[in-house]
Amino acid sequence: MQRRVFDTLMSLAGLVMVVVLLVAGSLLLVGANFANSNVHDQLAAQQIYFPSKAAFQQAKAGTEITPGMIPYLEKYAGQQLLTGAQAEAYANHFISVHLSEMPYGGVYSKISAAAMANPKDASLQALVNTSFKGTTLRGLLLEAYAFSVFGQIAQWAAIAAFILAAVMLILVLFGFAHSRRVPEDLTLGQPRRELVNA
């Protein structure tokens, strides 16, 4: 096979890779935008707000804000919960803390079992309800966080695909330029010393 033909074929294959990477990057970007906007819109509809700055200034054990929450939540004080990072912080450092302060550690299965064993205990029935709501909200917020992470991963993958497409395009251009400089009668496997003006 002639070297010029080989170089041209390899450059064309590289061009196909450029197109594939651009399409993949575009699809990943669409996925990232969908995940991020969907997470934002779903969280916005719930109208959940972080406690105010004043609440963080009065933090103490057994109240709405405990000292352990401050490093994770104070930066969001008074803000509406709209992002995956905020959802994770609220779920793991606000709801989870309050659930853990309940009897049985707020674990729904344990509270539910105790309530079934004592069906006439109104306080246990109320705890079942509170634990169920808190655990459900926490799970939904963590799911929103997970989708936001998928969106971030897709966004970084899209950026990587676009960078690789740019690098591949440069290599393709070098390949086409090289194929023009190779003598027409040069075949693959010929020693380098026979190259002329290469």
Properties at a glance:
71% helix, 6 helices, 198 residues, mainly alpha, disordered C terminus, single chain, 0% strand
Can you put this structure into words, describing what you see?
It contains 6 helices and no strands. It has one domain. With 198 residues, the chain is mainly alpha-helical. Helix content is 71%, strand content 0%. The chain has helices at residues 3-46, 53-57, 70-73, 84-100, 108-117, 122-181. The protein is elongated, with a radius of gyration of 30 Å.
Summarize the topology.
Blueprint: H1 3-46, H2 53-57, H3 70-73, H4 84-100, H5 108-117, H6 122-181
Task: Provide a quick synopsis of the model.
The chain has 198 residues and is mainly α.
Question: Roughly how much helix do the residues carry, as a percent range?
Answer: over 70%
Which segments are poorly predicted (pLDDT under 50) over 5 or more consecutive residues?
193-198
Number of domains: 1
What does the average pLDDT come to? Answer: 90
Shape: elongated
Beta strand count: 0
